[in-house]
Automatic annotation (TrEMBL):
Domain DUF5110, residue spans: 689-757
Domain called Glycosyl hydrolase family 31 C-terminal: residue spans: 587-673
Protein name as catalogued: Glycosyl hydrolase
All copies of domain Glycoside hydrolase family 31 N-terminal, residue ranges: 38-209
Keywords, sorted A to Z: Glycosidase, Hydrolase
Family under the similarity heading: Belongs to the glycosyl hydrolase 31 family.
PROSITE patterns named in the record: GLYCOSYL_HYDROL_F31_1
Gene Ontology process terms (BP): carbohydrate metabolic process
Annotated Glycoside hydrolase family 31 TIM barrel domain residues: 251-579
Domain of life of the native organism: Bacteria
Amino acid sequence: MITNTSLEYKGDLYPSKIVSYEQEGDSIFFNTDNKVILRVTILRDSLIRFRFTTKGYFSNDFSYAIDKTQLHGYNFLELTEEETYFLIKTSKVKCKIQKADLRLSIYDLNDLLILEDELGFHWEESYEYGGNIVKMSKSSKDGECFYGLGDKATQMNLKGKRLENFATDQYAYQKEQDPLYKVVPFYIGLHNKQSYGIFFDNTFRTFFDFCQERRNVTSFWAEGGEMNYYFIYGPQMQDVVTTYTDLTGKPELPPLWVLGYHQCKWSYYPESKVKEITSKFRELKIPCDAIYLDIDYMEGFRCFTWSKEYFPDPKRMVAELAEDGFKTVVIIDPGIKIDKDYWVYKEALEKDYFCKRADGPYMKGKVWPGECNFPDYTNPVVREWWAGLFKELISDIGVKGVWNDMNEPAVMEVPNKTFPMDVRHVYDGNPCSHRKAHNIYGTQMARATYHGVKRFAYPKRPFVITRSAYSGAQRYTSSWTGDNVATWEHLWIANIQVQRMCISGMGFTGSDIGGFAEQPTGELYARWIQLGVFHPFCRTHSSGDHGNQEPWAFDEEVINITRKFVSLRYQLLPYLYTMFWQYIEEGIPMLKPLVYYDQDDTQTHYRNDEFIFGNQILVCPILEPNAVGRRMYIPRGEWYNYWTNEFSIGGREVWVDTKFDEIPVFVKAGAIIPKYPVQQYVGELEFDELTLDLYFKIGKEKSVVYEDAQDGYDYKKGRYSFLSFRTIGKEKELIIQLHKEGKYDTPYTKYKINLIGLPFKVTEIEIDNEKVEFNKIEFEANHFLIVDKEFSELHITGE
């Protein structure tokens, strides 16, 4: 037997010594004598990219994740050569590259070690597929914690976990089941009160080990592609998350109605059933802005068609629903039924737009319509064609949003639930197999859908939601956490999933309230509603196989709880809208785990349940049955119980009593919380005053309120209102300072200021340095006052 030694398994390979280096602008190239090249690119003083190749040259540099509209630049860059290493220095960090083996370490400017290689970069040649399995291992510090990775059904702190990223249709998944629908290869490390981030931008199947295999070693690897990762320095977690979100991009502002409550089911049909559901919401006075149509609205599950039997006149129906305040959202899947008489199929076939196997035939798989072909959304020509298909749905019929499902991509009745790995993709001019394109297929479908909905919804704003996503998908779409289950365990999972998605750059996310699979009890549904109204995306969704899941499917008490909490969400719409504005403007996550809020307090490092909603509201859901209260951790600072206005000092774990129609909610002292009157849908009411709940504090606090026309693009021309309130509390004085930016004039003319926790009896009020007689303004001693919205400074004094 003749052995070809070049084909033998070689095991792990490593870079050898550096033999040369050169600097080109913001990049430094290090070359080893075994043809490994490390390119270090300084994008910002706190954002460094490390890219390795083992073949002596780099392939085309292309990424679907990176927001190419972002401008990068550093303030300071210095490269020096020492005896055993090269030193790269910015105004934030120092990076040492070892001459012997390319291992690197990163320090702050005080020489505190932030991150260092253990084995560092190494690789294993893949004879079966070609290319390399690329690997990286880092040393982990004692007490180090890890967060992020997007959609994972596990503890907030990932220490001790090994996780996989491969977009997978996981119907009725369970706690710790992995992988799930989304791929976000980004994590945050925290030790010694210093946070950093790693974004491993590789679309192959990737893995992360957070000290599971070896106690003080963290590693990540991919089944192909490059070792290409970004290091982000904090030192605060807020800095890491904001920088990552800037790097991968932010969405545009949604129309305000999208932040309302949505109702969905597999499936509402025929038209009479849809009307029955929407009428019941209005009858029971439970606010609702959107009704969803699942796959049964189509003719034989063919995308972009309507069932003539169930929906004979969809344009009329959609218009009638709109008159009652309901926006219609419809599902669109990637599988296109193989049917020579089906116009979408014929167009794609004629233009050769479907994915192909390696040897040429079209990829064929079974989904809801039966045998289907699948568009290659990595082809820009296909994306443009797909976008154009939405004209009838959006422009002609009046549908307001599109829901992309099954786009992992999911295929039925095959062992791996998805495409064969030999399927070929255009990948925007970088041809590849499905091994590389799988994790971004859903994102590219959502991207094409977004551009179509946006084109035909104009001058209104688009709404798209997707089940599968890769880093950067937030630029095009919202998401939900997939096919969950009506169990208490899944309520716990949903709470953590949405927090984790928010700090992983993909904040516009929610769960199927009540659980998609199986049937919740009334108590579980009520507790889920109480959590879901504090998630950025708020929708009840269920499988029709398991019974009804509308609020009235339960008893009167559950109906009342649903009405109470959904109404609270509608009151808080200006607060939610402001949260979203700060997310798109500054990359600030809409939900903040306690460790994000206060990383210096080690008591927050392993908390799962509590989170900060926006900047100033603390929420802790009830996650078990028969609860009359729960223990929770109130973070450092001063807080008011939302329900009782009782004042609390934070930094401690406490027992909080609750009723069935309450969960623990606290408001930060000093905050001003804006509220609208309860509406059955966004835009139902005209109102002349904005309510401001002011929670007194000795000291200073800042609150902001963003508003605009609630839809359309005038806000991009400066037609918005951004209010900055500064409260200064003293023993017998309260000062409210107001600064306004923007050209939008809100339709209301007054503020109703509710004074909460005021420790003195009001004796005098001054508005803009002029004393005001109590009988000339609406004022109820120590409870509220109503003032004209044009004031700049308000003084309230007392005794």
